[in-house]
Amino acid sequence: FLLQKPDLEPSPPRRYVKQCLNAVGQNPDTDALQQELNKLRQEIARLTEENKDLRARLKHYETAPEDGSTTK
């Protein structure tokens, strides 16, 4: 049967699941990928904040009259 793995015993369940899913610590590339993921999440947060700031600045310039006078 395809789902049966004789070399992996289901006890304790947590270890079995980690082995099947190749959880953190099982694969040397996992730590590097986790670090890259954290860096990318930080970059997303920084860019999101920058985008918010730039949109606010743009909105300020869009609502300001170009020549300083009021329109009728």
UniProtKB/TrEMBL annotation:
Coiled-coil annotation reads: 30-64
UniProt xrefs under SUPFAM superfamilies: Mitotic arrest deficient-like 1, Mad1
Keywords, A to Z?
Coiled coil
- Domain of life per record: Eukaryota
- Stated name of the protein: MYC binding protein
Lineage, broadest ranks: Eukaryota, Metazoa, Chordata, Craniata, Vertebrata
